[in-house]
Amino acid sequence: MSFGSLPDDAAGICAEGITVTYRNGHTALRDASFSLPKGTIAALVGVNGSGKSTLFKAIMGFVPTSAGKISILGGTVRDALRANTVAYVPQAEEVDWTFPVLVEDVVMMGRYGHMGFFRIPRAEDHKMVENALERVNMLEFRHRQIGELSGGQKKRVFLARALAQDSRVVLLDEPFTGVDVQTEDAIIALLREMRDEGRVMLVSTHNLGSVPEFCDRTILIKETVLAYGPTEDIFTRQNLELAFGGVLRHFVMQGADLHDDEEDKRRLTVISDDERPFVIYDHHDEDEEEEADAP
Ligand SMILES: Nc1ncnc2c1ncn2[C@@H]1O[C@H](COP(=O)(O)OP(=O)(O)OP(=O)(O)O)[C@@H](O)[C@H]1O
């Protein structure tokens, strides 16, 4: 897993020993390295404050790296900025929803980097916006105010903006927070299509349960990259305990530690650790709930 020379699949996103220190002197990322090939859906997994947003900002060129190097599709971060290579799908809380703007205008923002100085959309830009809205099943909402939409619908609109931008790299910040199962499935289906088109998607998520289902790769982060690679190699008890410590309370080895009474708990996923299957359970703690219910 060590970095060394650039691997063959470096043509997606590649970070080599990057360090990011904020102006107040806080180092949020230290000597972080990973590489993702094109045509990948990767999970960026870590606890609050582990540096996920900082890594996104570094890839987008919003914060400088004080050491190391990031390459995007073989070029620099500056090249990627210039070529409009990276799209960002924000968390709902990051956006000022009181700003009066139509759904189709939000999606058109994805085209800005492709337009001239005066940002006058051409027929091709309108077509891209229409196609993008159609792909996320939001065309009928095109003339609605963005602030009037539900959380899941807003997420779809920002995905459409990334599609309209036609960026090869898409960073998604917690795309499944506050969305229903149907919307989650629709987003996953869309990400798979985008992967098949050769794009790289990096998805920051706290929802470990769905990661093995749709992310080919995982980057585990805690102020540095603890591990990265194919999800089935990264999702080991040891790695997840390193990243989550005591937070991962119901991390139970099947066969070894699994007791009958635990079988009722909601199983999130089944994956393999050294050929032995294990399950990750929801954080739902029944003992605590029973105590809370007690008079
Ligand atoms: N602008 C800033 N100036 C100084 N420190 C910052 C700044 N932004 C973030 N940090 C610090 O850097 C660390 C990493 O923050 P970051 O936002 O990257 O974490 P995160 O993994 O995205 O967290 P979360 O899951 O809560 O969104 C935290 O300790 C945070 O307090």
From TrEMBL:
Gene3D superfamilies associated with the record: P-loop containing nucleotide triphosphate hydrolases
InterPro entries assigned: AAA+_ATPase, ABC_transporter-like_ATP-bd, ABC_transporter-like_CS, Metal_Ion_Import_ABC, P-loop_NTPase
Keyword DNA repair attached: no
Listed PROSITE patterns: ABC_TRANSPORTER_1, ABC_TRANSPORTER_2
Origin: domain of life: Bacteria
Protein keywords: ATP-binding, Ion transport, Nucleotide-binding, Transport, Zinc, Zinc transport
One annotated GO molecular function: ATP binding
ABC transporter domain ranges (all copies): 13-248
GO biological process: one example: zinc ion transport
Matches recorded under NCBIfam families: PRK15056.1
Similarity comment text for this entry: Belongs to the ABC transporter superfamily.
Name the UniProt record assigns to this protein: Manganese/iron transport system ATP-binding protein
Organism placement in taxonomy: Bacteria, Pseudomonadati, Pseudomonadota, Alphaproteobacteria, Rhodobacterales
